[in-house]
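Technical note accompanying the year-one report. For the benefit of new consortium partners, we illustrate the data format agreed upon in the data management plan: each record pairs a sequence with a structure-token string. No post-processing was applied to the example shown here.
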Amino acid sequence: MDDKVGPDLSHPDALIRLTSTVLRFRCPSISPKAAKDVNFLSSFHTVGTHVTTQKVLKTATSSRDYLIKALSKKKNVPHTTIATAAEKYVTPIHQILLACRVQPESARLDQRLVFEWSTGIEEKERFFKSEAIMYELVMTVATQAVAMAGLGTDECIAGQFASASRNFKKSSGIFDFLATTLLPQWISKGGKVVDEALPAEAKIGVCEAFKVLMLGIAQQMAVATVLMKDGTPNWSLLAKLSLGISEQFQEFVSIMRNKAATTKSRMDPEFFTLMTFQIELQKSFSLYFHARHYWEQELQYGLAIAMLNHAISLMRTRDSAVGKGLPEIKAKSPLKAVEKDLNFVRAHMQMVLQAWEKDNSIIYFDKVPLKLPAEKTLAQGVHMMKPDPFELEVVEPVALILPGEDADFGKNHDNGGSSATNGGDGDTIDSDYELAKRLQEQLNSE
């Protein structure tokens, strides 16, 4: 039998929904008009005669077509399908890029390859063209990153917070790979990379910022997971995690402002309203959780009351754009969807405060400090999440053969290319393996 007396002071479901609020981004898309003009078999018709090369070229073309269909606006394609389609296309396009890099003298096209992608991060759809195969690889990997975040959002909405957290960490890892490896590699190889001529997803500053954003969202999912469990949560840990989320969102905004200001100006301003909302909300939640820790675990009742008072003050709507508190929720704001939960949590905090003040006035008589002691507050939060490491699959470059070279190359691949005589010394080697090995060594030495 439940012997509790008085109001239910346990954290409400509305708090869980608020702490896990996220905004979905569109995936990048491929121009449907230009999509038909890209055919790897036709473009590499002369030099792509080797059977393995033709297989890779066919795979690249079919994988690209599948990705285009997955990204089509006319179909409500699940994010998991888009992520899988992008992942499958990455391998053959990587092989083709590798082949062109290590055999530049043979990388001659019969028809131009023009890749045209739009950004999904900016508010308005804009298409960007490039003939660089690296551009195609970058945007495909970026599509995988955004799709993984979309899958995480879908799982968050379904209440599958643990799984959502894992997918946001995967997205963070892909953005980190773009920012620290793939995009710098493009620049270091002498590629003509003009920032303004690229979609947002192909810019180092943007990818660096989104790596941090995805980690913050992953941590949101972790907090929601803890709050969903039965029993009393670890309030102290939740306080540190919530403050960490606020710090990561602040870092995201700072990176966008300092390293991707143009892209920031082209994004939906409502997204940054959500960021401001979450930064302040998570600070309030951190104080709320910390107050509960002091009340229930430390038995410092006066301090808990003062801390909860501060949490409630941060939940109020701010008087100005630079004032403390939450941004105003306007009629057409996407935050309108969480307004009911916000008001419920405000009422819940007020109810907890009144119950504590009543108990303190008749039972504990603990002094309530006018100002929170610095040593009792959190100096910084905990950043628990790390990006899931991402790297491209190790592949072997395919052979690109100029006319006049194919006869000798063909002799080396009789009987399936299993063996060949190297000069006159009688040593037998696997020609395909040896070619791939030499090309890979050349690539690694660049």
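Partners are asked to follow this layout when depositing records. Residues 269-298 form the longest helix (30 residues).
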